[in-house]
Amino acid sequence: MSGESAFNERAAEYDAWFEENAAAYESELRAVRSLMPVSRRPVEVGVGTGRFAVPLGIGKGVEPSAAMAELARRRGVEVVPGVAEDLPFEDGSFDLVLIATTVCFIDDLRKALAEAYRVLEDGGFLIVAMLDRETELGRAYDSEKERSPYYSHARFRSSAEIIAALSEAGFGEPVSVQTVSSPPARMRQPEDPAPGTGTGLFAVLRARKKRVRPAGERCVS
Q: Domain map of the chain by residue range?
């Protein structure tokens, strides 16, 4: 994962962002919740400090940064060391995989999405929550990333890029919502999610692993 050392060295500082930008954080949670299916076996890939997993009811996560993982464990998350491109789980282990604010740090997106597909059961869901580069705020983040200890190694991606990658990985057509239409530090009230992508910095895409019909099963209309 790109920039892992920064997250180890500044885990507490990173974690404090969510308190300092509470309106933006709540807006992000609302957006993810709006697309969350009922799930019995969820996992978050790139669980960080547990800021998404805990309020969303996800009890298991994967995280390469030891310092970030320790904070998530203190919040009650079972954290397994690992990276998105090589998940330490068997095929079909989960019915929901969440990747939140992590795709910009993934080195091999194609491999990461293939791994998410592999560990999902047939019909399971993948939710990707991301900072969308092709928005006004996303372009600002991208142009100023060298000033950030966290984002200097990041590769910000567009929602269109992720949608294309999801299709290539075998997922069905995603549904999407967006939020955070103004700079997080200036937000005073949370926003409810809006459909689609293109204006909100924080985009959420939900795609489903296509169900494989067993041999001999007939489609009944």
A: 4-208
- Check if the beta carbon of residue 185 is closer than 8 Å to that of residue 21: yes
CATH architecture assigned to 4-208 = 3-Layer(aba) Sandwich (3.40)
Kindly report, residue by residue over 86-127, the tens digit of the pLDDT. 999 999 999 999 999 999 999 999 999 999 999 999 999 999
Query: Angle of helix 159-169 relative to helix 109-119, nearest 10 degrees?
Result: 50
Q: Count of alpha carbons within 13 Å of 93, Cβ hemisphere only?
A: 15
Task: Specify the pLDDT at position 220.
Answer: 42
Stretch 150-156: mean pLDDT, rounded?
90
Q: Which of 53, 55, 28, 32 is nearest to 43 (CA)?
A: 53
Query: Could you identify the residue written with the tokens 């929550």?
Result: 129
Sheet (strand 120-131) strand order: 78-80, 60-62, 42-45, 94-100, 120-131, 202-208, 175-179, 194-195
User: How does 58-89 read in b/e, with b if 16+ C-beta sit within 10 Å?
Assistant: bebbbbbbebbbebbbeeebebeebbbbebeb
